[in-house]
Design goal:
It is a single chain. Helix 1 packs antiparallel against helix 2, helix 2 packs antiparallel against helix 3 and helix 5 runs antiparallel to helix 6. The longest helix is centred in the first third of the chain and has 24 residues. The protein starts with 17 loop residues before the first helix and ends with a helix. 50% of the residues lie in helices and 0% in strands. With 321 residues, the chain is an all-alpha fold. The protein is built from 10 helices and no strands.
Length: 321
């Protein structure tokens, strides 16, 4: 029922959620399950903002009807009925968007499309909250994507040349509070609609390459300094980890750390030749398998093999690679 879904207008009290509604609409045909989770996130967020006004109740009712019907119609789809599989799918889509935009940024290919994809990745990482608390890697990538979208946008708007990658070169300065704290970054990009940044629809990449937005005017995205900021330094300056060193769902061409000669003694095996796995380890192995299946949906065999190898290593040694 997602195709051509007509929801009541978004009231002013829920204006902050308009971009998630657009995100879901953009994925209705390309990946309906992603649209489903985006609307569930929208519903949960809307309930926290306004559940009493008639306009909000109309929208909430429309979302609930859609979610209930979609879940019944897709009862055999594990990505809908199983949170682990659904999380794997949404995170995989978010990571692909993020890594494409990051690759373009580091190659100094700056344009509105890169801004658009960083922005969309940030929204998609927000949707991941529907599955619970974000991992450290996902949270850091979300913050970085939202900051990069704002930073590059303002540079282009002001006729300045953005600095590729994290501030300071290589991975130095990644995660620093550039232009304000985390709350400032969240509000700057997360609170702006796609239309304010110069497009009316969010990214729908085709085989990892997003479509070029038709609009030409960037509009009034809240200000983040487009000049190179000075890293603040100190123990608190690296507020989160480098998301590129160990992406949770490796992209088709992932940046792997260089091999080292450091010897790591194998963990002792339990009787019977198998290690004793904790519940958390079992869940992690299941996630690797789900991510592998999700990667195959995109014909990404390299990522599938990588995740299956990680699952086998974890099951055999009890060590998460």
């Amino acid at each position: 029922m997602s195709a051509g879904l007509k929801l009541p207008p978004c009231p002013p009290s829920l204006k902050a959620l308009q971009h998630y509604i657009k995100l879901a609409s953009d994925y209705d045909k390309r990946e309906p399950v992603v649209a489903y989770w985006a609307r569930l996130y929208t519903l949960q967020s809307a309930l926290k903002l306004d559940r009493k006004s008639p306009e909000a109740r109309a929208l909430l009712s429309g979302l609930m009807d859609y979610l209930e019907t979609f879940k019944k119609e897709n009862a055999a789809n594990e990505s809908v009925t199983n949170d682990i599989a659904g999380q794997a799918l949404v995170e995989n889509v978010a990571h692909k968007l993020f890594m494409w935009a990051d690759g373009e940024d580091r190659a100094a290919r700056f344009n509105k499309n890169v801004v658009k994809v960083f922005y969309t990745a940030g929204l998609m990482f927000d949707v991941c909250e529907v599955f619970g608390e974000l991992t450290e890697e996902v949270a850091s990538q979300r913050k970085y994507a939202k900051w990069k979208a704002t930073y590059i946008h303002n540079c282009l708007k002001n006729g300045e040349t953005p600095i590729p990658g994290p501030m300071g070169g290589d991975d130095e300065g990644l995660g620093e509070d550039v232009g304000g704290g985390e709350g400032d970054q969240e509000g700057a990009v997360g609170g702006a609609s796609g239309g304010a940044m110069g497009w009316s629809h969010l990214a729908q990449p085709n085989h990892g390459i997003p479509s070029v937005p038709a609009a030409t005017d960037f509009g009034g995205l809240p200000s983040v300094s487009s000049s190179s900021p000075t890293p603040s330094g100190g123990a608190g300056s690296r507020a989160f980890r480098d998301p590129y060193l160990q992406p949770q769902v490796p992209p088709s061409v992932s940046a792997q750390p260089p091999a080292t000669n450091t010897y790591q003694a194998p963990l002792p095996e339990a009787a019977g030749g198998a290690v004793t796995l904790s519940p958390d380890m079992i869940v992690k192995a299941q996630k690797y398998c789900k991510w592998a299946v999700s990667a195959l949906d995109y014909e990404d065999s390299k990522t599938a093999i990588n995740n299956l190898q990680k699952a086998l290593t974890l099951l055999k040694t009890g060590c998460d690679s």
